[in-house]
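Pilot study result, target chain (263 residues):
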Amino acid sequence: MAAQAELQQNGQISEEEFGPQLINKLEGHGISAADVKKLGDAGYHTVESVAYAPKKALLTIKGISEAKADKIQNEAAKLVPMGFTTATEFHQRRAEIIQLTTGSKELDKLLGGGVETGSITEIFGEFRTGKTQLCHTLAVTCQLPIDSGGGEGKCLYIDSEGTFRPERLLAVAERYGLSGADVLDNVAYARAYNTDHQSQLLLQASAMMAESRYALLIVDSATALYRTDYSGRGELSARQMHLGRFLRTLLRLADEVSDTSCP
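Predicted structure:
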C-alpha cells in the first residue's frame, strides 16, 4: 500500500486501478447496459460482488436467465483473479495489509499492530468494558494517514443499540489534532431497527464503498437485534441462518473492497 501511495503521488498510475471495479465495467465486456442496471438494482455494485456470488443468487434477479448468468459470471471472472496463486504472492499481499490503531499501544501490540483491514474483527466483552468507545475511537483513527496508524478513508457506522454519540468522535478527533467538523463529515451513520433492516443497510454500504474510499465499517452490535427478533429454541435455526448470511455478506464485502481497506 505504501508503494501504491508513492506511485499515485508521482502520477504514474490512476486511482481507478486500485480498489473495487464498478459494475458498469462489465458493459465493456459484452454485458448489456440493461443487464448491468438489473445487477445494480439487486445490490451488485462491483464486478467483485458478481464474481463472488453463487450462480443461484443471480438467477433470482428478474430478467437474468441461466444463459445470461453464465455469461455475466464468465466475464466477471476474467476481471477478478479467483484461481490459485503462490504462497509467496499471497505473503506479499498480506504484508501490504493496512492495520488501524486502536488508540492504545498495548492493545495494538496484542493485535499484532492494530485492527486488520480486509477482514472481520469481533469485539466482545461484558457490559461497560469499553466496546462502543473502541468503535468510536476506530471511527476516527481510520481517517488518519497510513503512516500514523490510519487508513486514509471514511467510516461507515451501523448502530443497532442507539449508543452512537458524535460527541465521542469530537473528543477523539481533538486528541489526534483533527478537525472535528471534517471527522463528523467522514462518518456515515445509520440506525438499524431490525435484523432485516440491518442486512439491507449492508447493501447500501456496498454501494457507498464502491463509489468512495471507506477504511472501516462498524456494526455495533452485530448480534443485539437477533436476541430480540428471534426467541426460543423454535427459532434458533432461523436465527443462526440469518446471522450466518449477515456475517457472510460482511466478509464478502470486505473481500470486494479489500484494496480500499474494509475491516
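One observation from the pilot: Strands lie at 99-100, 115-116, 154-159, 187-191, 214-220. A full batch analysis is planned for the follow-on phase.
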